[in-house]
Amino acid sequence: MCDSRISNLKLIKKINKDITTVYIKPPAKRSIKSIVTYADVSLNTEYFTIKLLSEEAQRQNKTHRVVIMLELGDLREGVMREEIIDFYEKIFQLPNIKVVGLGTNLNCLHGVMPSEDKLIQLSLYKQIIELKFKRKIPFISAGTTVTLPLLLHKQLPDGVNHFRLGEALFWGNNLFDSSIIEGMETDVLELFAEIIEVNEKPVVPAGVLAENPSGEVFDVSEEDFGRTTFRGILDVGLLDINPDFLIPQDKDLEVVGASSDMLILDLKDNGKNYKVGDLVAFKLKYMGALGLLNSNYIEKVVE
């Protein structure tokens, strides 16, 4: 089980201590003790950090496993390619540290897409390191959901044998062409929010317009003057989720905006007779579900 939050890895270990836990970002200095305690493996890019992990692993009488991340163009985490050999040479000398993989991250920051060529580079660096240092590296971690289509189309180079998958599991997304992977579903996770007000109101606000607390300025269209619409207020807000990550199941509904604790829907003529107390269902985009699942204010129900 992979996670970037130590509290989640701690909970996983509490449920089942035998599950292998992977911390999927470079550890912070102040989190080293917890990382070694609750993560069997961590993704790393800094010698300084791995040295701290080594020292803490000695104190806990453990061997901590690491995957070294290589920079292949997306410019998030990763050791530069020209430095990787010297980097590995130093890491192999640290006690209580076992290098189990070479990995990369693509698409998550600048949108750089994985390619057969980039993953061939990753495989070649693994071979070079194994030959030079006479050490076996079991895993080539090719990335996240964005890399999965290369596997499905048999475009992965030999040696790539590890993925860190989340979005594909819960949304079935093929990020190459925005399609759904065959056999997968898109509504595994849904949000249900309760209506706390329904009223027919003008479309155009009344008064002098300035920035709202989110820094937005409302645009007024002349054709909207004099028009009214039914508005529904829901019992969720920006504290819970960014409205951009919500997709109403009822395609007639439109998200107008949100404040800290309330979400505003345009119900149009309210032809479906929405009323206070009704639940409105939403599909979720990946980043929206990420926030909701980590919110203490949202009840989670498993069906």
From TrEMBL:
Its cofactor is pyridoxal 5'-phosphate. Residues 28-171 form the Alanine racemase N-terminal domain. Transmembrane segments: none annotated. InterPro entries: Ala_racemase, Ala_racemase_N, PLP-binding_barrel. Keywords: Isomerase, Pyridoxal phosphate. Gene3D superfamilies: Alanine racemase. One of its GO terms (cellular component) is cytosol. One of its GO terms (molecular function) is alanine racemase activity. This is Alanine racemase N-terminal domain-containing protein. It comes from Microscilla marina ATCC 23134.
